[in-house]
Every structure is written in C-alpha cells, then in structure tokens.
Amino acid sequence: MTSCLINLSALINKPTGISIYAQNLIPYLKGVEPVIFSAAPMGNSHCQKIPQGLSPDFGIKGHIRRLWWLQRQLSHHYRQLDSSLIFSPLPEAPLYSNCRFVVTVHDVIPLRFPKQFSAHLVGYFRYYVRQVVSQADHVICDSAATARDVVDFYQVPAAKVTSILLAYDQTHFRPCQQEKGNYFLYLGRPDVHKNLSRVLTAFQACANNDVELWLVGPQDSRYIPELKAQAQHLGIDDRIRFLDYVSYDQLPQLIGGAIALVFPSLWEGFGLPPLEAMACGTPVITSNLASLPEVVGDAALLIDPYSVDELADAMTQVANSSQLRTQLSSAGLARAQQFSWEKTGQQTADVLQRFL
Predict the structure, then answer these.
(1) What is the CA 109 to chain-centroid distance, rounded?
(2) Which residue ranges does the chain devote to CATH 3.40.50.2000?
(3) How far is CA 321 from each of CA 284, 310, 314, 316, rounded to the nearest angstrom?
(4) Minimal CA–CA distance to 175: which of 302, 276, 243, 296?
C-alpha cells in the first residue's frame, strides 16, 4: 500500500475544534500508512517536520503561508513519496496539482452569516473551499447537517460526502467527585452566531437571582466589550464572569461544577462542548437547529435559539429543579457513551482506505 499524507499544518498551540479533531484521529489511521506533516512533534516515526508559522496562531500571515506551503511544498512531497492520497482534516489541499485528496469540512458558517465575518474569511469559504471540495475525491463532514450544507452551498453530489460524527476523550471528560457550583456555563468563542447577546437577556429574565453565568472563551475585542456593556445595562454585570481560554486539564472540573451548559448557538457544524458536558454529567441547554440535535438526542433541553423566552424558561427550570438536573445528567451520561474517537477514527480510516 502506498502512503497517505496527513496534513496537520493548521495545528495550533492551544488546541480547540479542528486541532482536537486531528490529534484524536491520528492513532486510528495506522492502517493507511500515514506520513504526518506537522510543525509540532507528534511522537510518530513517520512524522515530517514542516516550517513554523503556518498555523492560525500566526494570523492572516500564517494562513497565507500555509496555503502557499500546501500548494508548493505538500504537492512536491506527494510526488516525491509516490503517495496516492492526501488527507486534510480541514478543507485545504493543493489545487490543480494532480494530487488526490480527501478533506474534512467542519461547517460553512461564514456562508450562512457572511455579515458577521471578515471579507477574507467569507472569500476563503466562497471561493477557495468551493474549489477544494469540488476537486476532492471525497468530503468528510462532522454531521449530517454539515453534509447537507456542503451539498447545498457547493453543489457537491451527495454521494461524494460522508458524515462522521465527532467524539470526546473518554478518559478526560467524565463525572468528577466535586460539589456543584452555582453557575451556568458557556464555552466557546463570542462570535455573533454563538448567540451570547440573547443568553445575557435570557439570564436576566431567569427566575433565579442566586445563580451566576460564566462565559469562557477568547476575550475577543470585537465582541466582549459590547457584551460587558449589555450586562451592565441589564443590571446583571455583578453575576457575570468573563473568563479567558481555560486549559484542557481544567475543563472537566469547570464543566462538572456547572448547573448546566448553555449553548444556544444559531448554527454549529457539530458542537463539542455539549458532548463534553454530557460526558461530565452536566445538564445541557442547547439549540434545536443544525447538528446539535444529532449530538444531544433527547438527553438535553432543546430550545429555539432565536427565542429569548424559551431560553429563559429552560434556564429557570434547570436552576430551580434538582430533579430535572438529575434526569438530564443521567440521560446525558448515557448519550455520551454512544460517541468514541475509536468509532470516529475507524470510520474515517474506512473512507481513506477506499481511495488508496
């Protein structure tokens, strides 16, 4: 069997989303004879060192350098190693290069909410990603919802797309023997489609004034000052905590201590936080849109994310009913057991095997 080149040029120093996905897949891809291209050591004898400065850690310059490296260097390695396939855990690959490749698309959210994103990011999805999925031998998506988006937005044949649900680290995210705190928790970026403005309004309307709301994620200067001003205007700023990036090691304790995870995003390609919360035994309130029902099933409170009243009512129910919290915790733990990186990795390896 010829080797499959694994493109990990986009791995970042503080893993989130795509980086977590890529790192967890690698152990299950041994059957495709992987040759890994990464700037970070991977503990793999078949890992090839690539230049620093290609990841999103380096901003737009890193992005441009990465696309240039993919086009010029990865295609060169492909021919030099006589490979027959590239797997890229995000929708990036050498174009017009006679390289065969399989890519993963995690979402096309910038096409759904173009006014909320920079012009260069919208252009990247509208033009570059369109060419990548068009030229790819196959496209993997995190959910059936994202698969539908790829078909609809890019006019890709449905037969060319496979949905494979993500997973979580079962040794890391599990119930902790700790006393519950008195806070709702949000995990993620503060982008507009994450719906935090409605979360603040719903929290103000929640019929329990003894609880706090902790918003954990990058302190993006485009959004956080406005959210802080809103909290002050609503008179709830003394019950809101804005926390920066929390390390991977600290996450289970943070999640496990929450009354509930509040995750009413307007759209998600998958949504790892609800799955990780269920695995920790923490109740989940989330959206009834996109991929989120695929993740939580009937083990969470599903609400219309555009309805502040529905969100406020769900938060009130969870805050005031220990019986409901126990019920959601048990249902979430059972639901989380249906997900594993072994299952995700094996399904991914099966797709790659078809094109080697």
Answers:
(1) 12
(2) 4-167+340-355, 183-336
(3) 14, 16, 11, 8
(4) 276
H or E stretch at 294: helix 292-296
Length, in residues, of the chain: 356
- Residue carrying structure tokens 């048990």: 330
Kindly state the tokens that stand for 87.
Answer: 């797997």
Place of tokens 């390896």: 349
Output phi, psi for 103, to 5 deg: -130, 160
Model confidence over 296-343: pLDDT tens digits?
Answer: 999 999 999 999 999 999 999 999 999 999 999 999 999 999 999 999
Does the structural domain 183-336 have CATH classification 3.30.870.10? no
CA distance 277 to 284: 7
Which two tokens mark 10?
A: 């986009």
Q: What Å distances lie between residue 247 and 187, 217, 218, 254, 348, CA to CA?
A: 12, 11, 12, 10, 28
- Threshold 0.85, pTM exceeds: yes
What does the CA dihedral 17, 21, 24, 30 come to, rounded to 10 degrees?
-160
Q: Are 113 and 331 in contact (CB under 8 A)?
A: no
* Reported CATH class of domain 4-167+340-355: alpha beta
pLDDT in tens, 247-300: 888 999 999 999 999 999 999 999 999 999 999 999 999 999 999 999 999 999
Using only C-alpha atoms, what is the Rg of the chain? 21
Question: What string of DSSP letters covers 8-41?
Answer: -TT--SS--HHHHHHHHHGGG-GGG-EEEEESS-
Place of tokens 């926390």: 243
